[in-house]
Write a structure and sequence with these properties.
mainly alpha; elongated
């Protein structure tokens, strides 16, 4: 089932019409185009041959959601309330003194 390289390249050129102008526009050596066309055809064949299970997307979403919830819970456990600066304590003390004086 092997094809001759020239036939393979010609068939790939017909399918990958976007690649030769991209190579020319990029200013690369035109001989690189054949290698890139062969690589593009190989990648297209590999991705077409991969069997994706029907529930793969839902399973992936479920796993990602569970992982994000775990990270959020971990951050909440580690979080410590920020400590107030020392001058806030003086302000609270002054507020207490002035409020105590007004009530009498």
């Amino acid at each position: 089932m092997t094809q001759e390289p020239s036939t393979f390249i010609e068939e790939a050129r017909r399918r990958e019409t976007w690649l030769p102008p991209a190579v020319e526009r990029d200013g690369r050596d035109p001989r690189e185009g054949e290698g890139l066309i062969a690589t593009a055809a190989l990648l297209r064949g590999v991705t077409a041959a991969i069997q994706i299970p029907e529930d793969a997307e839902e399973r992936s979403r479920r796993l990602a959601t569970a992982h994000m919830q775990e990270l959020r819970a971990d951050r909440k456990r580690r979080a410590t309330p920020p400590a107030a600066p020392w001058y806030f304590r003086i302000g609270n003390l002054m507020r207490f003194v002035f409020t105590l004086g007004r009530r009498r």
